[in-house]
Give the backbone structure.
Amino acid sequence: MTPSREILFNIDVSEAMALYLLMTIPIGLVAYGLARRVSRWKSGRPENRVDQIGHRIWNLLRVSVFHGRIVRRRNTYGGFMHLAIFSGFVTLLIGTSIVMIEADIAVPVFGVSFFHGNFYLGFKLAMNAAGLLLIAGVVMAFYRRLVLRPATQQSSGDDLLLLVFLLVLAIQGFALQCLRLAITRDPWAAWSFVSYPVALALQDVPVETLTGLHQLNWHAHFVTAFLFLGYVAYSKMIHPFTALANVLFRRLRPPGELDPIADLEQADTVGASRLEHFSWAQLMSVDACMHCGRCLEYCPTFSTGKALRPRDLVLELAGLQADRGGLFSGVLGEEANSGRYRWGRGAERELIGGAVSTEEIWDCTTCAACMEQCPVYIEHVPLIVGMRRNLVMEQNSFPPELAPVFTSLERLGNPYQNVPAERAAWTRKLEQPVAQMSEVAASGKSVEYLFFVGCIGSFVPRNQKVTIALIRVLQAAGISFAILGKEETCNGDPARRMGHEYLARQLAAKTVAKLNFYNVKKVVTACPHCFNAIRNEYPQLGGNYEVVHHSQLIAELIASGRLTLDAASSLAQGKVTYHDPCYLGRYNSVYDEPRNVLGALPATDLTEMPRSRNHSFCCGGGGGRAMMKEQRGIRINQERVREALNTGAQMVAAGCPFCMSMLEDGIVGVDAASKLRVHDLAELVAGSLQTPPPRS
Amino acid sequence: MNIVVCLKAVPTNVKDPVPKSDGAGILTEGDCFMNASDDYALEQALLLKKDFGTRVTAVTVGSVRSQDILHVSLAKGADEAIRVDADEFDPNIVSFILSRALRDLSYDLILTGVESSDGMSSQVGISLGAQLGLPYVYAVTKMAFGNGEDRLLVTRELGGGRYQTLEVDKPALLCVQSGIAPLTYTPPVKLIHARRKGVPSRSLSDLGITGEELARRRKTKVIEIKPLEKNSSTQWLSGNPEQLARVIIDKISKAL
């Protein structure tokens, strides 16, 4: 006898068919819900997200379906939990479809049957495994939501209802199988390894009872599936559609590049004060959020009690978008449903000041920890900068301490109200003079690198030491380079991140013009903010250069033997930990070179902080925050300093002048000046140079 | 009521300024910005506009490099802006040109700053008041008046930390002291719009001014410009906080 089973066993076929027809209602609701969302997205501004389609599809499979971005080293519990639910659910869904294909298409239409033999046995095995996986995943989820309760997760009725649905569906499925196996005494029952033992236990129950229970359970399973499907469009269960769409149409540009405002000079409104001012892809992205809370795990504002929580900001935007869609657009949930969704309420709310507070908008350090963590590529920073742009440029509304910064950038080309003529004053402290680009050009010579010093490295005494140290290193390695000197101005990054795109563009255009005038090919800088802007954003203005961070250049010089380091350094001694600057690490994936440099220092021992590399914790100074007051919660820099102290290191190595000043400030703040020092990589290397350059 | 604010664009980002060959001014390069002191005059005028719905007209005498301060004025809220196209530096001449430009305007109040950062003569405002035959008050720190009243109550700064309050007939010219009102940032979008729109300029001949008239009034000549010589000496103190405090107290008491 060939192994098989009767499909729709114990069920009246015509009734089943009628019920299947009913399923078009929830399917229609899903389609309607999706169509509403798509129409909302279409109200956004145009943006090209359909290039490189092959790469997009591969990435979609890799990061979502194959869980490349869901199961991550730092997110194993949630990752495997999702993998279990996902693989279980999808396998069961495919299994159900296979049965449907056999019963409704293959046999009646083509007269072909495949639901028997080894296929059938394997099917049984697979479905049992899948059911078990699904239940295991759901149990893990319950355990996490009800027992573990991570701080980054907020459980609403919606979240729990969804789990209940999945659990009930799975249990009902198993119950159906147990009852059928018990009734029919299925000879292949053992292949259903989960149901089989239960079926054996049920064999003594009268068949009539079992048959009745089977019928009841089948109908209950149908009702559950019916409700679940209808619920999909109005809960986070829509995420298989929205999240996949967002992963497929994700932004493929470098994360450190903010999109320019295309028609800045002509626009009547700039930035985002209404949802429609975001691009369609940004509007789609907020609907992709299923509140996993990973964005909060390394978020400096969440961890220190600020107003901004990137997840909530995204959900507020999603909620506002749902409001605009009217009834059946939001999610079934209570007032405090983490996303604060509403059913067709609050359509009159403003974006800024209503859905999102100005405190939230200004709290962001643009460190991109949220973007790095988000499994579905929601880009929080551009959303926030979009709103900052509107606040600054249109509403003239920003923290008051920024007005002198903007004015100084406009008039003096640096944020610190320093006189431009003094920009190269630090060169007086050099032992060996450094060439200036204007002299180099006048003499008809050329240099390999332009050393872009940056404002903080030019004007702030502590950071001038780093600049001088780097010059010593470059000179020792015999690198041919020059600086712009008094001609250098701010690259525009702080203004850009603070939302003043107009000012940023003026500053950037000035620098591009200067660099192009001197025909610069390679740029080296000790500031990751200069580095990121020149590398990733200057191409927008016709500035294309090979840009390296000094850690990359130094690592290369050490590796190629052009720099020899000595153990007798007084500076680079003992246990050192490295703080990854966001604009170097997360934005530009430079993680190894700084560590290679530290590894090459003979007398130091590198120890990592728990939050390092792409999971680094921001110093609190990015996005212009270094120039703003930090009024709420714990100081971010002090939080980071405590983490560094806990490693037992005596020194934090930095690769960013802003990180350096934030961390030094934090050390003073937690009264740890005797325990911890901050030094830039360049200082450590300069202090360890075997043959210091001759003193003049 | 109408207010005219007289503004000057000054170069802030100057490398090495040199006198013009005829001594009639300074040669500079780079961008020009609103003279800091005049910024306060504009701010005060716009405050009055906010309170009384006054009409504010911004006027400057300068080359095309000066026009951006008028864009800034418009972006901040001025109703009209006029640039007289003349690259003049001598305060006698600038005030004379202004007096001619203002002949065609109606005003109840003229506001200026107290000094310019590049010329620092503090003369233009006072001289303009004299040429227009208006009462003028220098270094105004406060002003109060009701709409439609003929008189102003004006407080001005005196030396030695004293203030003087005056009653002044309208129309009057007030040289506004820096700090009279907190400066606001220029709304960028409005600035973009103002720059796009541009401002009208009037030539000296439009105002009926001849070269002779100017030559007659040219009384000063710039001969030389030198950077400030730094001759202060820095002493680095070392020691523990107590010792440092003693040394510092000792030094202060000697100096006193």
Residues 326-344 of chain A have pLDDT under 50 and may be disordered.
